[in-house]
Specification:
- With about 230 residues, this protein is mainly beta.
- The chain folds into two domains: about 45 residues, no CATH class; about 130 residues, Glucose Permease (Domain IIA) (Distorted Sandwich).
- Helix content is about 5%, strand content about 35%.
- It is built from one helix and 15 strands; from the N terminus they run βββββββββββββββα.
- The strands form four sheets. Strands 8, 9, 10, 11, 12, 13, 14 and 15 form an eight-stranded antiparallel sheet that branches. It has a three-stranded antiparallel sheet with strand order 1-2-3, with no helix packed on it. The protein has a two-stranded antiparallel ribbon with strand order 4-5.
- β6 and β7 form a beta hairpin.
Length: about 230
C-alpha cells in the first residue's frame, strides 16, 4: 500500500505541502509499478494568507480661524479754544450839530430860554442852563483851543476859543477831559456835567456864547438848533 508523504517546504514565503506517493511497501520493498506509475505527480498546495485589511484614517480638514481685524482707531481731536473776544472800544460820542455848532452836552439834556432871568446879587442870567445827569460828557461846540480853569461862581469851567472867532464858555463841571490838549476838534470831550461852584445839588452845564470873544449873547437859539 502506498502512503502519501507530506513534505513541508517553504516556497516564496509560504508553507508548501508536498504530497508524494511512495512505492514502498510495509516491508520496505518497493511495490511493483504495474498498478500505478512509480511516482504520482506532486501536488503543490500553497497556503495563501488572506490580505490584511487596510485601515484608512481620514484626517479631518483643518479649520483655520482668522481673527477679525481690530476696529479702526478713532482719534478724537479736541477743538481749538475759541479766540478771546477783543475788548470793545469805548463808545464814541455822537454829538448833535446845528446852527453852526455841536450840541455841548453829549447825552440827554433839557433846557429852556432863561436869558436875562434874575439871579443872585441882582444879576441877569447870561447863558443857558442845560440840565443833564451828573457826569454826562460835555464837548467842544466848535474846533478851537480849549483852556480849563475855575471860578468862584461857576466852579470847574472850560473856555473854548473857536476857530470861528467866537468864544464859548461852560461851567459847573464835575471834572475835566483833555486838559492841556490845546487845539481840539468840534465834538471832542472836554469835561463832565457837575454841580460845582454855586450849583450844589443841581447838576447842569451853564453854557455861554460870546460872539467875536466879546460880551455874551443869548445862546439859546444856538443850542436849540444843535441839540
Amino acid at each position: 500500500m502506498r502512503k502519501p508523504l507530506l513534505l513541508p517546504s517553504l516556497l516564496a514565503g509560504g508553507l508548501v505541502v508536498v504530497s508524494a506517493t511512495t512505492g514502498l511497501t510495509h516491508g520496505g520493498e518497493p511495490e511493483p509499478s504495474s498498478d500505478t506509475p512509480a511516482m504520482a505527480p506532486i501536488a503543490l498546495q500553497r497556503a495563501v494568507r488572506p490580505p490584511e485589511p487596510t485601515t484608512t484614517t481620514t484626517v479631518p480638514p483643518t479649520t483655520t480661524t482668522t481673527a477679525p481685524p481690530p476696529p479702526p482707531t478713532t482719534t478724537t481731536t479736541a477743538p481749538p479754544p475759541p479766540p478771546e473776544p477783543e475788548p470793545e472800544p469805548a463808545p464814541e460820542v455822537e454829538p448833535s450839530a446845528g446852527g453852526g455848532i455841536v450840541c455841548p452836552v453829549a447825552g440827554p439834556v433839557d433846557f429852556v430860554d432863561s436869558w436875562g432871568d434874575a439871579r443872585s446879587g441882582g444879576r441877569g442870567h447870561q447863558g443857558t442852563d442845560m440840565m443833564a445827569d451828573y457826569g454826562t460828557p460835555t464837548v467842544a461846540p466848535v474846533s478851537g483851543t480849549v483852556e480849563h480853569r475855575g471860578s468862584s461862581l461857576g466852579g470847574l469851567s472850560w473856555y473854548l476859543y473857536g476857530d470861528d472867532g467866537d468864544m464859548y464858555y461852560g461851567t459847573h463841571l464835575s471834572g475835566y477831559e483833555n486838559e492841556g490838549a490845546g487845539w481840539v476838534e468840534a465834538g471832542t470831550v472836554i469835561g463832565y456835567v457837575g454841580d460845582s461852584g454855586n450849583a450844589a445839588g443841581t447838576p447842569h452845564l451853564h453854557f455861554e456864547y460870546h460872539p467875536g470873544g466879546g460880551s455874551p449873547a443869548n445862546s439859546y437859539p444856538l443850542v436849540a438848533a444843535a441839540c
